[in-house]
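Late entry, PPS complex.
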Amino acid sequence: MKSTNIQHTKHLVSPFDRCLKNGHRNGILWFTGLSGSGKTTLALELERILFQKGWYTFVLDGDNIRHGLCADLGFSAADRAENIRRIGEVAKLFADSGCLVITAFISPYRKDRDQIRILAGDLFHEVYIATPMEICEQRDPKGLYAKARRGEIESFTGISAPYEPPITPDLLVETSELSVEDSLQQLLEYVRKKFTFT
Ligand code: PPS
Ligand code: MG
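Prediction complete; structure with ligand written out below:
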């Protein structure tokens, strides 16, 4: 139940002041895509490159967050919605602190992603890491598709649970057509356009 008798405390330092200090704009690059599509690989490489350039950036990744903040959640539609809601709140806080946050969650439901867009407004950038299911299944880096096919994982995205692709993503990265390096170039170009002061 939502608490009553609470107010909003206004910071004396604005997000914009923090951005000026950092030398770049803040925001959330919200990666969405199937398991094995390349979300984590690209998020971590992008974070490393931007960090080396002196940017304030941080990755929130499904496999990590589900060990702590969301350790109580499974993979039902309701649990995924709550997972994405919590990450959205955390990502928004990071963004308000001046960070360029990169999130790597399957986030399979359009309505859950749309809620983050409502929460974060212009800070939210939807990045579709678009890789056909057959390619993800061939890659199967964690052996999860094989397990799901054997019926050892229930509600596995793409096999026994849905994935609703973005209709108009802010950026489309087709990892089956591009090398990791070329995908990163595409992401870096987007970051340069949207997050640098010119
Ligand atoms: S979600 O749908 O956004 O809430 O999922 P997310 O928090 O990103 O967690 C996905 C990672 O959990 C592992 N995993 C599963 N994925 C999909 N379906 C099922 N049932 C499942 N069970 C475990 C898997 O390693 C996912 O990581 P990625 O990096 O996407 O492969
Ligand atoms: Mg991953």
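The CA atoms of residues 148 and 156 lie 6 Å apart. Will revisit in the morning.
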